[in-house]
Amino acid sequence: MELDLREISRKENSEMPIDLSVDLSGEEIDGIFPLKKPVTLKGVIKNSADVLKLNAVLNAFYLKPCDRCFEETEQQITLNIKRVFVTQEENENDDYILVPLLKFNVDEFLRSEIILNLPTLHLCSPDCLGICSVCGKNLNKFKCDCPK
To answer: Which stretches of the chain drop beneath a pLDDT of 50?
Structure first.
């Protein structure tokens, strides 16, 4: 999905409300397709002194196996996003979104924001015990008699 920012860029002190639901279920991340539910982006783009600013909340549900026990686990990702749109490369700044032709590629933006903000470990719970390295039982559900 692409938003055309040309009109709002011509009108100082104007706003463009955003209330989007984007299907990214076909997006592969780390070899899986973890975004089964639509990703939402709600907020506003404002033109203030000829500077376009995005202020929004991204909400996604990320479904993948737990890194310790391999049980399918869904985590909610909620991000408060504040960015400035620029038409040319200013400098390397994570707060800028480059839109050379004033066209904002929402799908690409949402995907990159999710990837950049994923936790290092995806766990079903903070105290997940994982699986036994000897018998392979899920230690959250079963006890095993294997030597430690």
So the answer is: none
What lies within 8 Å, CB to CB, of 131 at 6+ separation is 68, 69, 70, 137, 138, 139
Beta pairing partners, 18: 43
Rounded Cα distance, 69 and 47, in Å: 48
Q: What is the pTM of this model?
A: 0.79
Indicate the domain borders of the chain: 2-116
d(CA 28, CA 30): 7
Task: Using alpha carbons, select from 43, 106, 105, 39 the residue that is nearest to residue 77.
Answer: 39
User: Tell me, what DSSP letter sits at residue 38?
Assistant: P
Residue 10 has a pLDDT of 85
